[in-house]
Amino acid sequence: MTELLAPAGSKEALVAAVQNGADAVYLGVDEFNARRGARNFTLDELRPAVNYCHLRGVKVYLTLNTLITDRELHALASAARVANEAGVDAILVQDWGVLDTLRRVVPDLPLHASTQMTVHTLSGVREAARLGITRAVLARELSRNEIAELCRESPIELEVFAHGALCMCWSGQCAMSAVIGQRSGNRGLCAQPCRLPYDGGHPLSLRDNCLADYVPELMDMGVACLKLEGRMKRPEYVAAVTGIYARLIREHRGPTDEERGQLAAAFSRDGFTDGYYTGQTGESMFGVRPANARWPEEWFAQLRADYERGTMRTVPVRFAAKLAPDEPMTLLAADDDDHLVTVTGATPESARNRSVTAEEAEQRLRKTGGTAFTVRECVVRVTPGIAVSAASLNALRRDALAELEAVRTATPERRTGRYVAPEEINNPAEPPRFTVSLLHASQLTPALAEAGAALISLPLMEYEQLDLTPYRGKTRFCAVLPRIYRTRDEALLRTKLEAALRCGADAVGIANLGHFALMRDYKVEKRGELSLNVFNSAALRFLKEQGLDTAAVSFELRREQIRDLQKCLPCEAVIYGRLPLMITENRIALNADGVLTDRRGERFPVVEVYGGRSEIENAKTLCLADHDDWRSVGLSYARLRFTTETPEECAAILRAHVEGRDCAPEDLTRGLFYRGVE
Fold first, then answer.
1. What's the CATH number where 235 sits?
2. DSSP class of residue 207?
3. Does any domain span residue 632?
4. Which helix (H) or strand (E) is 480 found in, with range?
5. Which of 63, 169, 178, 673 could form a disulfide with 184 if both were Cys (CB 3.0 to 4.6 A apart)?
6. Is the pLDDT confidence value at 622 over 70?
7. Backbone angles phi and psi of 635, in degrees to 5
8. pLDDT tens digits, one per residue of 84-105
């Protein structure tokens, strides 16, 4: 049976989800989760929450799926140990350093690849499996045919978002909130700039996803888990949506018209969309929450009253009791999960006035009110002529249910390891060398190659147009694999990569988990790209183990954090250029000059990248060259990222950097180098 996974952004939401039929819940603790704005749970509250769920047959998945700084890694390791001891069933991860840490600290605890890891191809799924991950949460942009193919070929479980909010950007690849407002979506504090107006409309605001009509199809594909979004929403919303999807899964059907209406009433942004699943992307996918939208308070009040009673989700048990003279009463209790306990009670006495009957004993044993149990079957054998008090029967029942509860909530035996901080490594004494990344081959000129770049990176597909013969001996070249592609593209990418290497490319840019699998058989320099979101020293250690030769660090890190990284790999950071804010599956509707203009008049260029996708660039150009701080943080490479610049501007700006001349643009920003993110 396909698992239904519901959000638990608070204790009340957890109860709402469990009582309405969730098979599993996902929740966060403290600061280490992608919904830091939800109420979440403290570490002290985690064990009771897990016990509540496990008692009722519900799994608990902990979301440690954000980017973590070096200073936070030790606390995260401690939180993972607490979670392990509390009995959580799996942990969701995004950060390579977190993955590396958890494999050392809680080696027996299953790990799930969060959607923030941007797993969207068969190569990515297989690579996740190789790393010991037991489930991958697929990107929301995949179509039904792609999901079906992955289900057929995947060596691990696959989880699919079935209902709730959609991000315009591919998950794990959005920096818009961070760059504009210092609130990092990769650290759980997204300010949702995609919901704001641009060019007089809302071209970045997607309607909520709804795959209710396709529940039977998804089940038949072999999807292991259907996930409901909503840790920031009201508990009553969780109750409503969980209850409907639980019925659909249980009855293997699509929704009725009434259920469709209830889903819309619970929450929608001017309707729902199934555009990614059906492959019908475009204008119909977009919408905003109407200004006059209201919560259905009367219906929500009824839902709340129902789940607060705590009787919607009970555990059926079977009792077998024996009451005989001269021996303690015995009660055997069994549940549907093959748990079996036996308890003994008081010894019955000979009856003086009236003997206890089997019917009377059964009636007393069936009184399980106030517990999570209901008695489905009760067989009582009573020897005639004995007396048993009501109190002793009540005690027998309580003892049996307490024993059964203890068995159901017992934590599995798991190993715990020691947190090992990455080895301390002195920062290189040499100043960083300049590298250049170009968007188009047309930006490459002899003047640029001769200006002093140690390496020039170009998107893989741009090598089709290149003759690198004139540039040999002047600089080196890197072919950057697209960070977003499709499983069907993998054969083409290999063909193009081999052609680029023959053409003269010296290195390959790794931008996605799936690229490790694609590149494993190639003996060529492998350089980690910005989209890998390198945020801590443990991530560098991990990526070195996976075969990377260099790594670009996240531009959400501030200078002190970059300086303090233990650089077991040569590190690179962007010091000039427009930072990438979003990559979108939907092509963005633009005005004539190819920019998005926000309500403050800021103009964000939008460029086309592999597959016809849109990439939004920052309105302002990062420039650090007029300060020397970037030279002293231990970088081996300093990248100039050219997107909208002309070929002449690319060469001139690089030359100015090499010669130490001022080249600060008018639309200057320091990015996050000095301020970092929350």
1. 3.20.20.380
2. P
3. yes
4. strand 476-480
5. 178
6. yes
7. -75, 145
8. 999 999 999 999 999 999 999 9
